[in-house]
Design brief:
9 helices, 68% helix, transmembrane, Arc/bac/fun_rhodopsins, transmembrane helix
Amino acid sequence: MSGNQAVGINPPNAVEHLTTQASDWLWAAFSFMAVCFLATLGWSVMRPRGTRLFHEIAAVVLLTSSLAYFSMASDLGATPVAVEFRGDGGDPTRQIWYVRYIQWFINFPLLLLEVLLATGLPLSDIITTLFMSIVLVICGLVGALVHSTYKWGYFTFGCSALLWLWYVLLWHAPSTQFANGGIVRRGYYLAAGYLAFMLITYPICWACAEGANVITVDAEMIWYGILDCLTAPLFLAIILWQVRAVDYSAFGFHSGKFVDHAAASEKRGAQQA
């Protein structure tokens, strides 16, 4: 036999499940993510040491997405959950893809970090913002696993965390002092506005798929797949293009190695002498 045999080798474990057609789409998304990962990794290696931070974060995001889409395309990483809304009067179950939430648990904080590193936000605000993105993902996962109307309580908590992300991205962070002045600020507005818009689309898809069960698993895969491709590779391409010619010393990054701090201390001592 030839062709995509993933659904046959790894049989679905729910009534409403992935089909071969959707698996084909997921393999295409996996291939796209993997190619973008390899390209980003190559781009990172070609850059001088000390100027790879944004590229290496992007590579981690794309590798995580590649692994998640490999799992989903293989019909792995899902668990059956009884649906709340039953259109046919029966008692069906639906595949809930926990591997997708593992992907978001890793990627959403890193995507926000890519943007916020260029701002003048204090470390405490950045950590709080990253935590709120984790709250958003966890609420989505727990809500998806709950079969009763209580799932919408988690949906509300998640949307509240999303509002915090919007506040930081669109109001709080832009009011700070940016590294390298106007060049980074202009790039930030583009990247932050794009990311803020993409983040609001995920709860809409969740409400139609895991929440209200009004779209099929195949439609869910196509919808989330498009969102992930736009939120990860395309967004990261915007970020990396914006910082390609920025002097990294303007960001004030330090490696944290003892030798670097020792060298800096010696230099300050020599200047004071």
